[in-house]
Design goal:
Number of helices: 4
Number of strands: 2
Distance between the termini: 27 Å
Radius of gyration: 12 Å
Shape: globular
Structural class: alpha+beta
Helix content: 40-55%
């Protein structure tokens, strides 16, 4: 898989996080969301983010994100 496809696809601009960290790829964002408390993951804005990640990555997506996005 090439770096610009699937979960390795990079954002046009990294997403800044607290303490100087950044989300650089779709995979970084997916892992970040997975580490959020379950109640936060269920908020509409995070559900929308999951849907956007799935659409941006591939038709299959990560199984654990597909399940939480349902």
């Amino acid at each position: 898989m090439t770096p610009d496809k699937g979960w390795q696809r990079r954002f046009d601009e990294p997403i800044p996080l607290p303490r100087g960290r950044q989300l650089v790829t779709l995979e970084d964002a997916a892992k970040y969301i997975q580490k959020l408390p379950k109640a936060d993951q269920q908020l509409d804005e995070w559900q929308a983010a999951v849907e956007a990640l799935l659409l941006s990555s591939s038709s299959t997506g990560l199984p654990c994100l597909r399940a939480s996005a349902s």
